[in-house]
């Protein structure tokens, strides 16, 4: 199975030269550490950064340079800071090529639930609603099952939705999947994971066509 860094590495392979990319809180933030060498990708953070770099090394953190999840990050040469109004104008204006988000549930139709945590008070869904409504392409980085061993890839989401029919692809510790009109299409399986393992962990409709290759990380 993949660990969190493995999930981020696989998603990084979906980046393309010249992309503007927004990284959500959690596993998605790790993607910035694995941009393929020689590729030019610009990371945007909704708290007002364009040109965000990887996490700083221990002792090199600047407490004033943080991402939307309040983690210290770096800024690459040529990067800029701006206010939230400008940041969300970029997002709502569909200038972001790819958004990588975490999720608590994804439905087989591409609906996503990633803001309402059961049993916890939250202020609201925040910028996620703008990202899922405006992004051209959304990849979800998530665990295949919750802590109770229940599938998070479902026929229908049970938690309050953040967006409807917006998720394009999903990378979990078990698999790389594409959301199609007919359900979750299995594209790759994680190293050491069998197709049967993925079947057992997926409650939504799973489409399996031919031999499923193992991921190359």
Please characterize this protein's 3D structure.
It is a single chain. Helices cover 15% and strands 24% of the residues. It has 217 residues and is an alpha/beta fold. It has four helices and 13 strands. It has one domain: Glutaconate Coenzyme A-transferase, CATH 3.40.1080. The N and C termini lie close together (12 Å).
Key structural traits:
single chain, 217 residues, alpha/beta, Glutaconate Coenzyme A-transferase, ten-stranded mixed beta sheet, three-stranded mixed beta sheet, 4 helices, 13 strands, 15% helix
Question: Helix and strand succession?
Answer: HEEEEHEEEHEEEEEHE
CATH class, named: Alpha Beta
Cα-atom radius of gyration:
17 Å
Helix content: 10-25%
CATH superfamily: Glutaconate Coenzyme A-transferase
End-to-end distance:
12 Å
Number of separate helices: 4
- Say what the CATH topology is: Glutaconate Coenzyme A-transferase
CATH architecture: 3-Layer(aba) Sandwich
Number of strands: 13
**Structural class by SSE content:** alpha/beta
Low-pLDDT parts are none
**Order of strands across the widest beta sheet?**
4-3-2-1-5-8-10-11-12-13
Main sheet properties: 10 strands, mixed
Overall mean pLDDT score? Answer: 93
Outline type: globular
Beta-strand portion reads 15-25%
Number of domains: 1
């Amino acid at each position: 199975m993949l660990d969190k860094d493995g999930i981020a590495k696989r998603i990084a392979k979906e980046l393309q030269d010249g992309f503007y990319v927004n990284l959500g809180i959690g596993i998605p933030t790790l993607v910035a550490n694995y941009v393929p060498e020689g590729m030019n990708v610009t990371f945007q953070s909704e708290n007002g950064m364009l040109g965000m770099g990887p996490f700083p090394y221990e002792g090199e953190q600047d407490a004033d340079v943080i991402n939307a999840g309040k983690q210290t990050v770096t800024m690459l040469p040529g990067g800029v800071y701006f206010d939230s109004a400008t940041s969300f104008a970029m997002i709502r204006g569909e200038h972001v090529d790819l958004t990588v988000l975490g999720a608590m549930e994804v439905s087989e139709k591409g609906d996503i639930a990633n803001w309402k945590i059961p049993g916890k008070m939250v202020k609201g869904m925040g910028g996620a609603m703008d990202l899922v409504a405006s992004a051209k392409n959304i990849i979800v980085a998530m665990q295949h099952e919750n802590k109770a061993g229940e599938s998070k890839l479902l026929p229908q989401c049970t938690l309050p939705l953040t967006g409807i029919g917006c998720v394009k692809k999903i990378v979990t510790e078990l698999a790389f999947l594409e959301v199609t009109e007919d359900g979750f299409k299995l594209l790759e399986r994680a190293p050491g994971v069998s197709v049967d393992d993925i079947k057992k962990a997926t409650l939504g409709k799973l489409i399996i066509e031919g031999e499923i290759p193992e991921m190359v990380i």
